[in-house]
Amino acid sequence: MSPPVLDPNEELRLATFAVGPDLYAIDIMRIREIVRPLPVTPVPKAPAGMVGVIDLRGQVLPLFDLRLRFELGARAEADLVHVRYLIVKLDGRTVGVVVDQVHDVVNLTRAKLRVGAGVLVGESAQVFIGVAPVPSPQGERLALLLNLRSVLQGAHSISVDDLLRGTNRTILPVPIDIPRGVR
């Protein structure tokens, strides 16, 4: 059975967000909603990165913090105002994902994505699908296409610094500066 033929002109909608200094993207169709932080109930012996559960209008959801999964330090107090929870569908389940800041939804054709062998190698190829060019005030910037399933599975943390060392971090331009009060 041959792999499906993908239309290079197919329009994709990607939601972009920051975790630490890096820009990430996922298919907007995975996101059910974006909410401000809610009270979290810790869960003893939870998998790495799971900070607990939240009650979202009567539905109890596991909540994963990508800073913890990526072994990044704690958020600065001033940055807490930008934190959001992405409520996403993954393998028929709904989970919450904590990100540092939500940016924009961008429309790209499939041909603009850089995916597959040679784009990312080693462990990074398991965590990231590829890269996508997205507009920013400083010009075009590459966003890492996140494989949520791989990121949220497993009990160990992922050292994103090790994954990006010597490859993507050197090609990513300076972070996007979002004016205060935006989102």
How would you describe the overall organization of this protein?
The strands form 2 sheets. Strands 8-1-2-11-10-9 form a 6-stranded mixed β-sheet. The chain has a 5-stranded mixed β-sheet with strand order 3-6-7-5-4. A hairpin with a 2-residue loop joins β1 (11-19) and β2 (22-27). The chain has helices spanning 66-69, 124-127, 148-152, 160-164, 168-171; strands at 11-19, 22-27, 31-35, 50-56, 59-65, 84-90, 93-99, 101-109, 114-115, 128-136, 139-146. The termini are far apart. It is mainly beta. Helix content is 12%, strand content 42%.
Across the major sheet, the strand order is 8-1-2-11-10-9
What spatial form do the alpha-carbon principal axes imply? globular
The count of DSSP E runs of length 2 or more, i.e. the number of strands, is 11
SSE pattern: EEEEEHEEEEHEEHHH
- Runs in which pLDDT lies below 50 for 5 or more consecutive residues are 163-183
Strand content: 35-45%
What is the straight-line distance between the termini? 46 Å
Main beta sheet = 6 strands, mixed
Average pLDDT level: 79
Radius of gyration of CA atoms, rounded to a whole number: 16 Å
**Count, helices:** 5
Helicity range: 10-25%
Q: Return the structural class.
A: mainly beta
